Amino acid sequence: MASAVRALDDKKLQTTLYIKQTPATDQRAVGTDTIVINWVIKDGPAGNTIGHAEGLTTHANPAQNFWVTIMDLVFESGSLAGSTLKVMGLHGGKINGPGQWSVMGGTGDLTMARGIINYKIIQEDGASRTFEICIFAYYTSKETIPIPGGIGIFP
């Protein structure tokens, strides 16, 4: 029973990161209104690259210029290296103001993550856009997840 209780131990992630979108170099169209994205994640507005936001964005509401984005935040360096967050939500342009995305899962050190990301676009011009993202998520450390059969823990 102790391992079942440990599996529910939550840890909290609260951090601010930056996503840099540069359409000419980090995304490609796969249809009229759908784009494959590989945006850069940085630890500051002009900081070090620590990962990529990989996924799809679809122009769901052209009249309001809103996009539905489904992406994995893949962390490649820093304290979250080897982990991901599964993220989904709407975004528009800087004129649309701040918004919020859902955190619906995670892997690595962020196993079973759930929470929100509050974002605002802090820079936007014809060549690029920078999102400031404030992540508020709870997760269960992978070391506390029992292996099927009840023997051991994940390495």
Automatic annotation (TrEMBL):
Subcellular location: Secreted, Extracellular space, Apoplast
Superkingdom: Eukaryota
InterPro entries named among the record's database cross-references: Allene_oxi_cyc_Dirigent, Dirigent
Entry keyword set: Apoplast, Secreted
CC per GO annotation: apoplast
GO BP field: phenylpropanoid biosynthetic process
PANTHER family, per the entry: NUCLEOPORIN-RELATED
Complex and partners: Homodimer.
Family according to the record: Belongs to the plant dirigent protein family.
Its biological purpose: Dirigent proteins impart stereoselectivity on the phenoxy radical-coupling reaction, yielding optically active lignans from two molecules of coniferyl alcohol in the biosynthesis of lignans, flavonolignans, and alkaloids and thus plays a central role in plant secondary metabolism.
Protein name: Dirigent protein
UniProt lineage: Eukaryota, Viridiplantae, Streptophyta, Embryophyta, Tracheophyta
